[in-house]
Amino acid sequence: LEALTDILLTTIRQQTSTSKTITTITETTVTNTFHGIRKDVSAEELLKSKIIDQTVYEGLRQGTITVDSVSKKGSVQKYLQGTNSIAGVHIQSTKEKMSIYEAKRRGILTPGTALVLLEAQAATGFVIDPVTNRKLSVEEAVAEGLVGRELRDKLLSAERAVTGYTDPYTGNTISLFQALKKDLIVKDHGIRLLEAQIATGGIIDPVNSHRLPVEVAYQRGYFDQEMNQILSDPDDDTKGFFDPNTKENLTYLQLVERGVNDPETGLCLLSLYK
Q1: b/e per residue 69-98 (b: at least 16 CB within 10 A)
Q2: I need a labelling partner for 220 at 20 to 30 A (CA). Which of 19, 65, 79, 261 fits?
Q3: pLDDT tens profile 110-138
């Protein structure tokens, strides 16, 4: 009888142990989060947004593919973190690099040109310090003196293109494009910020904190055919970025393409010939 009791107790312990092990494994497999622009993004959200496919999603769930390996894929990284915006200025004659605000402070960039470039940084993710290779929120950049306090309100307004605008009628968080359609921001200003987002990886979904493929942006109401036409065929009214070297008005993409990559940080810098 004692032997039988021992066997039963051993069996119960094994079953309990197995049950606990299975529960632990199940919890581990479903928790897959990625670093978005300002907050974490679930694997489910990336699947819904067509940034990863069903095969990758299942691999993540089963533990045969890691979050780290998926995050490093160019096609995924582009939508999670974006590509380079213009991070700062490179002076050709002295080989010196500096922040946009420092270039304005020294009189190298006009206040208007500097503001537009800083707004583009804020609207595409972060204000960038090209010297230390750090990315900061607007409040952090102001606190650390990377930008002056006089620009705080304008840059916070541009930063809403990342964090979202509040619909005054519903209280819901809406995107840059939706705010533009509801006349919550000036049209030229909104188009300039939207163009900068598209040029640096895609339109930002402020609710889920990542960029979107164009077809998904259409589906979520973050873009439409009319706006696509405006940005695909830019005229002088929609070329909102000034090239200090050639005195031309350009799209953000054109200005980025004229930039140089900093070999130390990989950041894109506006190279000035003066």
Answers
A1: ebeeeeebebbbbbebbbbbbbbeeeeebb
A2: 65
A3: 999 999 999 999 999 999 999 999 999 99
Q: What tokens appear for 231 in the block? A: 């940005």
Closest CA to 210 of 163, 257, 172, 170: 163
Cβ 183 vs Cβ 161: under 8 Å? no
Amino acid type, 192: R
Q: What pTM was estimated for this model as a whole?
A: 0.85
